[in-house]
Each structure stands twice: as structure tokens, then as C-alpha cells.
Write a structure and sequence with these properties.
This protein has 247 residues and is α/β, with parallel strands linked by helices. Helices cover 44% and strands 13% of the residues. The protein has 9 helices and 9 strands. Strands 1-2-3-4-5-6-7-8-9 form a 9-stranded parallel sheet, with no helix packed on it.
Length: 247
């Protein structure tokens, strides 16, 4: 997006009192452009939904977006899909801002490949969160420690409804952590584990949890190297008649 256009846009955004949603998708915006946009939105009191998708923001831009998270008290949905937030430093900036946020209910960090340490920073920041309803960490290269921490969050959360972990190689051990959490959780209705390599053992752990859990209504388990016999065990173990399992 040309700098002149960004300047015109930021001028309009700075004085706008009605806009509730703004999307920047696959736009070529450099760090300076992101800074102009985020400064204009930092203290906006009407914006509810902000999407930066496929913009491939840099280190400085991540810090600017973190400032919005920290300062904007109206924003409830933040979507940063596929922005290559690949460094631990960038993830730490977001985590620091998220740690004290009390307004965001929907957080999407899909396909940012934040890695093991970066993911741990983000997950730790959400440990005491009381407002998050929907969390998407799919295709983010989560490590074992982050999955275990997420399971702890899930076990104690009274707000989280939708958790997407697709494309993370959590394996059978990660599935066990999540299954243990599902035994206690009373709010989650949708869990997406497509392509997580949980295998037969991981599916069996989930089957055991589904004999107890009554709130889950949608569970995605396709592309997980689970054989037909184990699929049957999972399908017949669910206590809730409302639960739909996708293979």
C-alpha cells in the first residue's frame, strides 16, 4: 500500500468515531506504514475487530501492534494470521501486551510459526486470562511445554469456548495433556486437532476423556494417523449425544 494512501487513511481513522472493524489482508505495508496505522488506532474507542492478515509484519511492527493491545480498551477481536512472527522477541512483545489485557475475547495467531519459545511466552501470558473465548494457535510450531501449559489453561478456564491447535505436532503425549484437561473443563465446545499426529494412543486418551466431558460439541481429529478400530472406540465413547467428531 502506497505511503500517501496510508497517510490519508490514518488521517481518517484518527478522527473516526463509528468504525468497528478494519481489515488489512495481504497488503504490502512496511514498518513505517504499520506504525502510522497503529498510532491512529491506539486510542480509538469504537474499533472492535482488527485484522492484519498476510501482511508479514516486521519486528518494529509487532511492537506497534503490541501497543494497540496494551492501550486500546475497545478492541475485542485481534487476527494476526500468517504474519511470520517467527522470532522469540516478536512473540515476547505480543505476550507482554496480552498479559494484562482484559478486553480481547477472540485471538487468532494462525500460521505465524512462533516456535517453541515464542509459543511458550504467548501461552504463559494467557495463563490468568479471564476474557478469552476463542483462541487460534494453529500451525504455530508449538512445543510440548506450550501444549502442557495450554492444557493447564483449559483445565481452569471458565470462558474459553473454541480452541484451534491444528497443524501442531502435539503427538500422543500432548493429546494426553489435553484429554486430562477436558475431564475438568466445563466451557469448551469446539476443539480442532487436525493434523496433530496424535496417533492411536492419543485418540485413546481423548476417548477416555469423552466418557466424562459433556460440553464439547465439535471435535476435529482428521489426518491424525488413527486406524479404523480406534476411531470406532472414540466414536462410541462420547457421553454427550451432541458431540460431532470429524475424521
Amino acid at each position: 500500500m502506497e505511503e500517501e494512501k496510508i497517510q490519508h487513511l490514518t488521517g481518517a481513522l484518527r478522527n473516526n468515531t463509528t468504525l468497528t472493524q478494519i481489515r488489512f489482508v495481504s497488503n504490502e505495508i512496511d514498518d513505517e506504514g504499520v506504525q502510522l496505522l497503529t498510532n491512529a488506532l491506539r486510542n480509538n474507542t469504537t474499533l472492535k475487530r482488527l485484522i492484519f492478515g498476510g501482511v508479514e509484519i516486521g519486528n518494529k511492527s509487532t511492537e506497534d501492534i503490541a501497543n494497540i493491545i496494551r492501550d486500546n480498551t475497545a478492541l475485542t477481536e485481534l487476527d494476526l494470521w500468517k504474519n511470520e512472527i517467527e522470532s522469540e522477541e516478536r512473540a515476547q512483545d505480543l505476550a507482554n501486551a496480552l498479559r494484562n489485557n482484559t478486553t480481547i475475547t477472540n485471538l487468532h495467531l494462525r500460521a505465524n510459526r512462533v516456535g517453541v519459545k515464542g509459543a511458550q511466552h504467548v501461552v504463559d501470558a494467557l495463563r490468568n486470562n479471564k476474557t478469552l473465548i476463542e483462541l487460534d494457535l494453529s500451525y504455530d510450531l508449538l512445543g510440548d511445554e506450550a501444549i502442557q501449559s495450554l492444557a493447564d489453561i483449559l483445565r481452569n478456564s471458565n470462558t474459553l469456548i473454541d480452541l484451534n491447535l491444528c497443524g501442531n505436532e502435539i503427538g500422543s503425549e500432548g493429546a494426553q495433556h489435553l484429554a486430562d484437561a477436558l475431564r475438568d473443563n466445563k466451557t469448551l465446545s469446539k476443539l480442532s486437532l487436525y493434523g496433530c499426529k496424535i496417533g492411536n494412543a492419543g485418540a485413546q486418551y481423548l476417548a477416555d476423556a469423552l466418557r466424562i466431558n459433556t460440553t464439547l460439541t465439535e471435535l476435529s481429529l482428521s489426518n491424525n494417523e488413527v486406524d479404523e478400530a480406534t476411531r470406532h472406540v472414540v466414536d462410541t465413547s462420547k457421553k454427550s449425544t451432541k458431540l460431532v467428531i470429524g475424521w
